[in-house]
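Ticket #4471: structure output looks truncated?

Reporter: J.K.
Steps to reproduce: submitted the chain below (39 residues) through the standard prediction queue, then opened the result file.
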Amino acid sequence: MLWLELVFTLLPVQLGFKQYVKKLSTDNSGRAHNSHRHW
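Returned output as attached by the reporter:
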């Protein structure tokens, strides 16, 4: 049962880390892409 607790504590951290990385990548290169992408 310990690994379940581990998974439930690590999953949000991993998701937050992925979102943080995505935010960083969009901050670096996404601005140029977003200016071109006006739907």
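Triage note (M.O.): checked the attachment and the full token line is present. The chain has one helix and no strands.
Status: closed, working as intended.
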